Amino acid sequence: MSDLRVNRRWSSLATKFCVAAITFAAGVTANWVLAPVSTPLPTPQPLEINYETAEIGTLRRAILEAKARGENTVELSVIGCGWDIGRLNQALSRDTVVLADLIDKKTYADTYGLHTWYKFKTKETLVDHPKSRLAYSPFPTAPSELLPIAEDEFLILEGNGRMESDGVTVTQHSNGVWYREGQTYLLFIWKDPSKGTAIRAGTDPLGVFLVDDDGNLSSYVDEDYPLKTDLAKRFNNSTNNLRQALKKAGR
């Protein structure tokens, strides 16, 4: 999967499976998906693994096993179970829609893998739904080092990232988004102003669109789906056309 685009065949898996992980190491298969795919080093050095302090399925175990095999990379894959974003009218009646620039990001390691916080600066809010329609509040709390968050900023958490740990480069892929700094996005999101965090509408990135310098939209997902088709047919993939239509509709 490209860092900038996601193939629909990958993303459609999210509607069928919950977050899962598969770890292949030393002939042992675990129930968490952490599937190390590694690059051999020229002269492997033996390493004693302390299995008592590195449980099967954990990130630490994957790193230790890679080092024991003389490898210096580990690749993980996580798929989140999901729900579809729906058509444009559904999304506009439910989601906050913003134009925003990615201004920063930071990746962290946890017990089973990586996650990345992406910080956005809002350029324009096209549709505002200040309260989430969810019956509960799933909004994560941002790490203290990313605070404070300005009024025109928000954070999105994704289950991906890349970082070095103990001499091993770990990369984690997901059915989420690899956002690019300096890129403007049209995002369908739910926001929690009290936390300064947001969640993408839909598990797959169907509500994520790249915006070029002329205001033209291109979907993060390559294949066709209803929301993408609606924006193309009704607004010719133009943010200006969408903006004018929303103003006329009084949104």
Determine the fraction of residues in helical runs and give it as a percent range. 10-25%
User: What's the alpha carbon Rg, rounded to whole Å?
Assistant: 20 Å
* DSSP helical segment count: 5
User: Could you tell me the mean pLDDT?
Assistant: 82
Termini separation (Å)?
36 Å
Determine the structural class based on helices, strands and strand pairing. Answer: alpha+beta
What series of H and E elements makes up the topology? HEEHEHEEEEEEEEEHH
- Which architecture name of the largest domain does CATH use? Beta Barrel
3D shape: elongated
Domain count: 2
Assembly form of the protein: single chain
What is the CATH domain class of the largest domain? Answer: Mainly Beta
Main-sheet strand order equals 4-5-6-10-9
Descriptive notes:
Helices cover 16% and strands 30% of the residues. The two termini are 36 Å apart. It is built from five helices and twelve strands. It has helices at 8-11, 59-68, 88-94, 226-235, 239-248, and strands spanning 24-25, 28-29, 73-78, 96-109, 114-127, 153-158, 161-165, 168-174, 184-192, 197-200, 208-211, 217-219. The chain has 251 residues and is of the alpha+beta class. It folds into two domains: 20-78, no CATH class; 88-159 and 179-248, OB fold (Dihydrolipoamide Acetyltransferase, E2P) (Beta Barrel), CATH 2.40.50. The strands form three sheets. The protein has a five-stranded mixed β-barrel with strand order 4-5-6-10-9. The chain has a three-stranded mixed beta sheet with strand order 3-8-7, covered by helices on one side.
